[in-house]
Amino acid sequence: MKKWWHKWLILPSELKRLGVIGLNQRNGTWLLPNNNRKFYRKVDDKLVTKLLAEKMDLAVPKLFHVFSTQKNVMDLEEILAPFDSFVMKPSRGSGGRGVLVIKKRRGNKFIKASGMSMTIQEVQQHATEILGGLFSLGGSRDVAMVEACINCHPELTKISYQGAPDVRVIMLHGYPVMAMLRVATRQSDGRANLHQGAIGIGIDLATGKSIHAIHHGNSVDTHPDLDTNLINITVPQWDTVLEMATKGYEMTGLGYLGADLIVDDTVGPVVIELNARPGLAIQLANATGLRLRFEKAQAQAKAHPNLGWEERLAFSVKAFGRQKSAQ
């Protein structure tokens, strides 16, 4: 497969023609002008995001407990005793840092998604590091959220190494412009973050089918650990995924926004978090730049400023779905 994005083979003029944007353009042209800072707490604090999503009847993972003090952490063993599996994460974390996924217990050991074990003391230490702000934005003090693990849809778990794959949708002015599926590898330790070694898979907005995949910036067709095919996979309940992501605009008021969801086998799509600063690797996963889509969405938003989520979503599927329009 052609590695069109390879940094040694492509000229800046060609990147511009393809509509690929970098961090400076993202920040100066799309992020800062469209995101009022007073709304950032709605997405930077995952506890706040969870409450907002619940008010809009959007499914979220069940919250087991919030560790907010060191004294509370000392009671962690007793508090977590009823739960064989859970996810512990910082409320103000970013980039997947500090997320601990425990899939089961074996005696007095906690077994991570990667199969590695942890002692109760190690789990307590992780909670202590979260409280100290080791993983939070700006290093400020934080709280450790403990949530239920998602039982991801089997159609997606078969292409992910132990961890649950998630879907990221990037939106401008409430218009979905691009989406990708992020699947875990052995290297990423069961987490779906590309910079930790996960795989990014571009998704066609019109059909929910996978169209292209990257691992460490290189084009791939199969999973390096599972040898399973990554192309032409359909994300279950895709229409619902897009609907929930699109409603993130009404929920936050942020013009430039990323929504991360997981498709639960029983509940269906679940909102994991929203992001006011979603990264740009989604362009590599889709082999398509964001600029041209952003410009089209922005023009539509200016021409029709009061459209509801249904109309915005219908426009995006028609304008950006590869099965329905050439990009």
Radius of gyration computed on alpha carbons: 20 Å
Structural class: alpha+beta
Spell out the CATH superfamily of the largest domain.
Answer: ATP-grasp fold, B domain
Task: Give the termini separation.
Answer: 18 Å
The fold-level CATH name of the largest domain is D-amino Acid Aminotransferase, Chain A, domain 1
Supply the number of structural domains. 2
Description:
The chain has 327 residues and is of the alpha+beta class. It has two domains: 12-59 and 152-320, D-amino Acid Aminotransferase, Chain A, domain 1, CATH 3.30.470; 63-147, Dna Ligase, domain 1. The protein is 30% helix and 22% strand. It has 13 helices and 13 strands. It has a seven-stranded antiparallel beta sheet with strand order 11-10-9-8-7-12-13. Strands 1-6-2-3-4-5 form a six-stranded antiparallel beta sheet. Strand 9 (199-203) and strand 10 (210-215) form a beta hairpin. It is globular. Residues 1-9 have low confidence and may be disordered.
Give a short summary of the structure.
With about 325 residues, this protein is of the alpha+beta class.
Secondary structure layout plus pairing:
Layout: H1 12-18, H2 23-31, H3 41-44, H4 46-55, E1 63-67, H5 70-74, H6 76-79, E2 86-90, E3 100-106, E4 109-112, E5 117-118, H7 120-131, E6 144-147, H8 154-157, E7 166-172, E8 175-183, E9 199-203, E10 210-215, E11 218-219, H9 238-246, H10 248-252, E12 256-264, E13 268-275, H11 282-286, H12 291-303, H13 309-320
Antiparallel strand pairs: 1-6, 2-3, 2-6, 3-4, 4-5, 7-8, 7-12, 8-9, 9-10, 10-11, 12-13
